């Protein structure tokens, strides 16, 4: 099985400015993470700039941005808590089209009726939130206090957004004084539309497709979607198997992934007999260099990770898990990452 990055180089064009890991961060540390997202996510900033420019006045701009915040915040919080994930590249294409949309409206001229435009802003906000939630979940969120962390992250996003709007308004007033060309505003919207077209084309046609998942027993294996912080500190877990009522040490799991281990996460709602079956596998002779723990909110009964691939099982499949584990330890890449 191959090992491409979860998000390809092309998709990083609209990558929302999120990188690194969220595992092990306290609630308050999610605030600067949200600020970082906003200030580094040029797609988000460009959309806001287009809306503010099109609004033409602060009161209308504030209303439109509030609508965008409502959509963005709703899907960010709900999708993260529910564990919903979408195709990140498809979301980036939609976000690129949102830039095209605002740019085209600006070139045509300000709407005479703003209701339809406000509903469009709300819809794009919902999509922005879904994309952000998907990437946030990919960082490996702590299981405890998830709601508080997502809210703190969203607070950080809004702080960054307020700062960005203040800067945009200030720059806009300065440019308005310096540039007296009557068509300058339409040209700016034209540039925004062009940026949206370019981004959408790049993402649609030049992003390498992800390899199809491979069947492993009743499970499927695909390039890794794990968000454990490989090489970000931690040590070996205190034990190999963590019970449903315990918390999985995600930082330690990331540490042993870098040492060539296989990490298994199972649904915290897994039936007792299935937990027993998995425990026996992990602590038995077939579970050498395998660690396991519960994952709150995980829909699949089992997910197993090595440094490059993910095994997903709708139900416990000991034979499929053994095939995945044996295949990994036969792979030269299973040697510890220096």
TrEMBL record:
Pfam families associated with the record: HupE_UreJ_2
Per the record, the domain of life is: Bacteria
| Record key words, sorted | Membrane, Transmembrane, Transmembrane helix
Keyword 4Fe-4S belongs to the record: no
Give me the segments passing through the membrane. Answer: 39-57, 64-82, 88-107, 114-131, 151-175, 187-206
- Keyword Acyltransferase attached: no
InterPro entries referenced in this protein's UniProt entry, alphabetically: Put_HupE_UreJ
Which named protein is this? HupE/UreJ family protein
Tell me which species this is from.
Lentzea kristufekii
């Amino acid at each position: 099985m191959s090992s491409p990055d979860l998000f390809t180089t092309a998709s990083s064009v609209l990558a929302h400015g999120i990188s690194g890991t969220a595992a092990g961060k306290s609630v308050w540390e999610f605030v600067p993470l949200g600020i970082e997202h906003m200030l580094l996510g040029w797609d988000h900033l460009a959309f806001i700039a287009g809306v503010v420019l099109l609004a033409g006045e602060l009161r209308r701009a504030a209303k439109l941005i509030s609508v965008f915040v409502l959509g963005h915040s709703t899907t960010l919080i709900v999708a993260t808590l529910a564990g919903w994930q979408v195709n990140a590249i498809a979301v980036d294409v939609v976000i690129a089209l949102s830039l095209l949309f605002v740019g085209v409206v600006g070139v045509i001229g300000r709407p005479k009726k703003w209701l339809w435009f406000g509903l469009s802003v709300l819809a794009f906000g919902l999509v922005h939130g879904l994309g952000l939630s998907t990437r946030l979940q990919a960082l490996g969120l702590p299981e405890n206090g998830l709601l508080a962390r997502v809210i703190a992250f969203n607070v950080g996003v809004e702080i960054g957004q307020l700062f960005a709007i203040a800067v945009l308004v200030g720059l806009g007033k300065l440019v308005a004084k310096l540039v007296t060309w009557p068509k300058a505003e339409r040209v700016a919207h034209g540039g925004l539309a062009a940026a949206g077209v370019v981004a959408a084309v790049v993402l649609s046609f030049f992003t390498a497709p992800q390899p199809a998942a491979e069947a492993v027993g009743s499970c499927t294996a695909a390039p890794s979607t794990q968000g454990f912080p490989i090489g970000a500190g931690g040590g070996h877990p205190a034990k190999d198997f963590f019970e449903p009522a315990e918390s999985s040490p995600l930082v330690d799991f990331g540490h042993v992934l870098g040492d060539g281990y296989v990490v298994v996460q199972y649904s915290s709602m897994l039936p007792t007999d299935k937990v027993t079956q998995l425990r026996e596998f992990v602590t038995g002779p077939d579970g050498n260099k395998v660690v396991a723990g519960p994952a709150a909110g995980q829909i699949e009964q089992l997910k197993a990770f090595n440094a490059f691939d993910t095994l997903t099982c709708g139900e416990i499949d000991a034979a499929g898990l053994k095939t995945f584990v044996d295949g990994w330890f036969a792979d030269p890449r299973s040697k510890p990452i220096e």
